[in-house]
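Q: What would this complex look like in 3D?
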Amino acid sequence: MPVTVRLPGALREATGGETKLTTSGGTLRDVIAEIDRRHPGFAARVLDEAGALRSYVNVYIGEDDARTRGGSGAAVPDGSEVMVIPAMAGGGG
Amino acid sequence: MIERTRIVLPRKLQDEIVAHARESAPRECCGLLFGDGEVVDRLVRGRNVHPTPETRYEIDPAQLRKALLSGDDSDRYLVGIYHSHPATKPEPSFTDVTSARWPAQVYVLTSLQSDPPKVFAYRITNGEAKKIPIVES
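A: Here is my prediction, written as structure tokens for the whole assembly.
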């Protein structure tokens, strides 16, 4: 079964408006790279120059925060649902 | 993407936003506004997990994930996001504008600088905030 990746918020701008994509399993970095091959520029929105998740991006693999499972190196088994959620943040300061 | 040019936010929900802002002070409050299209009919208080909540907010991403699971990613049901400025103007700050990553949603803002506090609405897209009207019903 493929991995399903859901993209709420502004990240869909990097996928031509697609909000749900399917990829192969692997690591989270592999999943992001596969989307980037289809939509160049996507990876740069999610990962920093060192390949780590950007601070304003939260990724869930199923119910788990990817940062608690190794960040961009986290395993994404076939059939997983991944949600890439931009931070909902700001403030008056 | 939905282009909301106004938001329908009943007075009762505006009052709830102000009440949340007052209860949270001196920290910023934040939350989600659900409904359909431009009409809000439900407010969900958010947990502000930012480490400096007096001047910043970040809605708990786990809470956000759960809230989003109930929708269909179309932007239709998550109408807006609200937060408070306890000590600054009810206008999007530089931080608000540069941190905005939800272009289809309306950013609703209140400030405790005025009494009673007023509620305002903005679209923040491409690094620019634009005030939009709030309709009560």
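A: To summarize the key features: Residues 3-86 of chain A form a domain with the Ubiquitin-like (UB roll) fold (CATH 3.10.20.30). Chain A has one domain: 3-86.
Q: Very helpful, thank you.
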